């Protein structure tokens, strides 16, 4: 793999997390050892839709080692509320709320089963074995109802809808843009091009399964939950609501977290159930999901039907786009799941292109599947996938090169800042430079020679391009608690929790560089809701640009406050005090005072009776004027054996603009990981239910995941920054970019390879079996 590029920001060689993790000294939730802890095991529904007539737990309660058995009725009697935490769904203006069906989610089902794997009882025992043995003794009496597994069937006048408040199983209808103007553009277009696509359901499958360790302190009347999360204060709010207590009565702690991808943001039923059980029993309770449980009960991802139609003039320029999305949101609407397939798509649908008019209609449908939530990219990959497949089809329809159709539609550099049709303001980006660099680095112009060489070797070769511009940095405010301690440390407390992004290295470097002090004197605190300010979780590629900017500002503000304090110490004038390399220098005397010594000097003077009000400690809040727009161009080449359908990615070029790069190693890791997850969706991953709601992909024997051997044989990553003016670092997000850029590049390359064989339509996942079948079907129709 090769990574090259240039950056306007200093580089950071710091790796403050790696040694701990690779040496096995990380502490994940399941590693937390608590004496006298009980073990919880959940009994889960084996049917997808039904009415609970009875849950018989007598035998389980009498089993050896069992301390408690809890049903939904037991939790309700203990004061447990349904989980209702939901981010409102707004129109594109961000102000007008869009109605949707409210779906309170019980920690343990009480009267109705709405998806397979839903919790119906919690067994708490002295050992895991005893809890599992007792779980097998629970007898469930559930009346089967007709399951609805796909949106089309779910909306066809069901006799027993999943929710009585949604007779047609429809949660919301979301509209944006100017449909009349788009219809006019389509009616007057020289070319009308339409593409229908499938965005299949995925399982996020982080390396560390979900786990929880819950306890309750009767003296303080406080709950403590250890669980892997992407933000403890965010999780605390949802958990407190379900427990019926104020947030101050709940502490959430996340140690090391092995992957999140959006799945570890919100409160899960299991967390609520074990917390309530710990209060009732007066004992600590631990629960760790099995991988089969995770595939069955973790929040799902993607799962939508997409249709995009574009109007193009004779020169191949787009004049209007219409987009229709039907999203399977599962049995419950949770978190920001409704936003992912509506407003997030609207914010990104124009991509890097000049598109005069856009109209979007998004419909959310309930089915008897596990709820969906944001997953890496969260609306951005499918948006780019739609748009870039449209550009490819337009190029073929009009008869021009796929790179050329993109060139003709790009937003020119001299029109930045540019306001798009959904009022999104592109604050930076040189999209033409990114495209041309990718074309050059991938040797696009010489591809036909490589295609012919492959043909002689008995394989077909194809090339695909994906150009994108995406939003990053949502929730435009971020706090950081900055302190200087008596033991000579700068202490940084942040809200987002790292799930592998190396926040410690990145944020520490920013402050170390700004203050001019060693990183060894910086202490980093995250993952404890009692110790960090209330803020957003680590989502949406926001920590580098938002928390990093808060850290940058906090350091500058501390230097300014320190200058005031040094003036009080020395009776010097503010303008006569300089700061560099961790020291204040008083110009008139030449005296030097270390930044870390200032609080001690002030404390000594206060003990002598001097009045000094200033302090270096403060909560700094960074406010961004809006999104940044990371962008890039990914070009993929594949080879396929037409006899077997076996596919190999032989060359992959990714040119990305994520603004000024703070740490190249982090950026490379994020891009490689994102490309791997995009590759997984494009080529192999899919959650499959049968028509009765049974999960057919309940283990990694059935749910395929990418391996090292599936990665591109040649992977080149190029950094081409155009800094954003929206934050002092000039940094944009990068966490989603690899996934956003890879879907269309890979699928387009496959389609390009198979087109000479008569295959004209392919849908993800492009497994060898599906490719082989498509090739055979095309041959039989010739």
Provide structural commentary.
GO terms for molecular function: iron ion binding; oxidoreductase activity. Its EC number is 1.2.99.2. With 782 residues, the protein is α+β, with helices and mostly antiparallel strands. The chain folds into four domains: 1-29 and 427-472 and 627-782, Aldehyde Oxidoreductase, domain 4 (2-Layer Sandwich), CATH 3.30.365; 152-201 and 301-411, 2-Layer Sandwich (Aldehyde Oxidoreductase, domain 4), CATH 3.30.365.10; 207-259 and 264-297, Aldehyde oxidase/xanthine dehydrogenase, molybdopterin binding domain (Aldehyde Oxidoreductase, domain 4), CATH 3.30.365; 477-623, Aldehyde oxidase/xanthine dehydrogenase, molybdopterin binding domain (Aldehyde Oxidoreductase, domain 4), CATH 3.30.365. Helix content is 29%, strand content 24%. The chain has 21 helices and 29 strands. The strands form seven sheets. A seven-stranded mixed beta sheet has the order 4-6-2-13-10-11-12, with helices on both faces. The chain has a five-stranded mixed beta sheet with strand order 1-29-28-27-19, sandwiched between helices. It has a five-stranded mixed beta sheet with strand order 8-16-15-14-9. Helix 16 (503-515) packs parallel to helix 17 (543-570).
Summarize the entry for a quick read.
This protein is of the alpha+beta class and 782 residues long. It folds into four domains: 1-29 and 427-472 and 627-782, Aldehyde Oxidoreductase, domain 4 (2-Layer Sandwich), CATH 3.30.365.10; 152-201 and 301-411, Aldehyde Oxidoreductase, domain 4 (2-Layer Sandwich), CATH 3.30.365; 207-259 and 264-297, Aldehyde oxidase/xanthine dehydrogenase, molybdopterin binding domain (Aldehyde Oxidoreductase, domain 4), CATH 3.30.365.10; 477-623, Aldehyde Oxidoreductase, domain 4, CATH 3.30.365.
């Amino acid at each position: 793999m090769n990574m090259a590029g240039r950056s306007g920001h200093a580089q950071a060689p710091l790796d403050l997390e790696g040694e701990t993790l690779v040496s096995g000294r990380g502490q994940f939730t399941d590693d937390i050892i608590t004496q006298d802890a009980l073990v919880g095991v959940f009994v889960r529904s084996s049917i997808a839709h039904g009415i609970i007539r009875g849950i018989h737990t007598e035998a389980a309660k009498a089993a050896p080692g069992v301390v408690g058995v809890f049903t939904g009725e037991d939790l309700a009697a203990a004061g447990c509320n349904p989980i209702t935490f939901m981010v409102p769904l707004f129109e594109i203006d961000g102000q007008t709320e869009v109605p949707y069906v409210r779906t309170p989610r019980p920690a343990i089902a009480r009267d109705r089963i709405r998806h397979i794997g839903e919790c119906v009882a919690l067994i708490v025992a002295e050992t895991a074995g005893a809890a599992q043995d007792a779980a097998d003794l629970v007898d469930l009496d559930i009346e089967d109802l007709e399951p609805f597994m796909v949106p089309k069937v779910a909306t066809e006048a069901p006799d027993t809808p999943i929710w009585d408040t949604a007779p047609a199983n429809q949660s919301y209808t979301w509209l944006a843009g100017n449909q009349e103007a788009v219809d006019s553009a389509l009616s007057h277009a020289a070319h009308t091009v339409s593409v229908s696509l499938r965005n299949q359901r995925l399982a996020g499958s982080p390396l560390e399964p979900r786990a929880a360790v819950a306890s309750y302190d009767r003296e303080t009347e406080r709950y403590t939950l250890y669980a892997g999360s992407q933000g403890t204060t965010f999780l605390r709010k949802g958990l407190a609501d379900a427990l019926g207590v104020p947030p101050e009565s709940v502490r959430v702690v996340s140690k090391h977290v092995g992957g999140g991808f959006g799945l570890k943001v919100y409160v899960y039923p299991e967390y609520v159930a074990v917390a309530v059980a710990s209060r009732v029993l007066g004992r600590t309770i631990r629960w760790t999901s099995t991988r089969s449980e995770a595939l069955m009960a973790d929040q799902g991802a993607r799962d939508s039907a997409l249709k995009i139609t574009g109007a193009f003039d004779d020169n191949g320029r787009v004049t209007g786009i219409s987009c229709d999305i039907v999203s399977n949101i599962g049995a419950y609407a949770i978190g920001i799941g409704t936003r992912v397939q509506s407003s997030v798509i609207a914010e990104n649908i124009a991509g890097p292109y000049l598109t005069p008019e856009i109209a979007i209609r998004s419909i959310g449908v309930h089915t008897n599947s596990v709820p969906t939530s944001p997953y890496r990219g969260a609306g951005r990959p499918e948006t780019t996938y739609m748009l870039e497949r449209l550009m490819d089809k337009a190029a073929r329809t009009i008869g021009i090169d796929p790179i050329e159709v993109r060139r003709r539609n790009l937003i020119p550099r001299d029109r930045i800042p540019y306001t798009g049709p959904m009022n999104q303001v592109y604050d930076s980006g040189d999209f033409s430079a990114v495209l041309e660099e990718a074309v050059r680095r991938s040797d696009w112009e010489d591809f036909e020679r490589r295609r012919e060489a492959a043909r002689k070797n008995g394989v077909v070769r194809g090339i695909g391009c994906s150009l994108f511009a995406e939003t990053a940095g949502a929730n435009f405010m971020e706090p950081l608690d900055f302190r200087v301690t008596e033991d000579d440390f700068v202490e940084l407390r942040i809200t987002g929790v790292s799930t592998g992004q190396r926040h410690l290295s990145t944020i520490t470097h920013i402050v170390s560089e700004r203050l001019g002090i060693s990183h060894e004197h910086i202490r980093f605190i995250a993952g404890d809701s009692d110790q960090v300010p209330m803020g957003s979780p680590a989502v949406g590629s926001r920590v580098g640009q938002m928390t990093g900017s808060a850290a940058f500002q906090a350091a500058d503000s501390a230097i300014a406050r320190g200058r005031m304090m040094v003036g009080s110490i020395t009776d010097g004038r503010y303008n006569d005090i300089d700061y560099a390399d961790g020291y204040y220098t008083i110009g008139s005397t030449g005296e030097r005072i270390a930044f870390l010594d200032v609080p001690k000097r002030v404390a000594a003077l206060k003990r002598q009776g001097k009045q000094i009000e200033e302090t270096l400690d403060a909560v700094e809040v960074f406010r961004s004027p809006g999104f940044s727009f990371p962008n890039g161009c990914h070009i993929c080449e594949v080879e396929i054996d037409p006899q077997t359908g076996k596919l190999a990615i032989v060359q992959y070029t990714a040119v990305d603009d994520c603004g000024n790069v703070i740490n190249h190693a982090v950026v490379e890791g994020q891009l490689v990981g994102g490309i791997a997850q995009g590759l997984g969706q494009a080529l192999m991953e899919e959650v499959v239910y049968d028509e009765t709601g049974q999960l057919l992909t309940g283990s990694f024997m059935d749910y395929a995941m990418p391996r090292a051997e599936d990665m591109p044989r040649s992977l080149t990553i190029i950094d081409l920054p155009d800094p954003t003016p929206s934050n002092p670092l000039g940094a944009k997000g990068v966490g989603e970019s690899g996934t956003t850029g890879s879907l269309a590049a890979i699928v387009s390359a496959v389609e390009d390879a198979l087109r000479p064989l008569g295959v004209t339509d392919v849908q993800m996942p492009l497994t060898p079996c599906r490719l082989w079948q498509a090739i055979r079907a095309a041959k039989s129709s010739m």
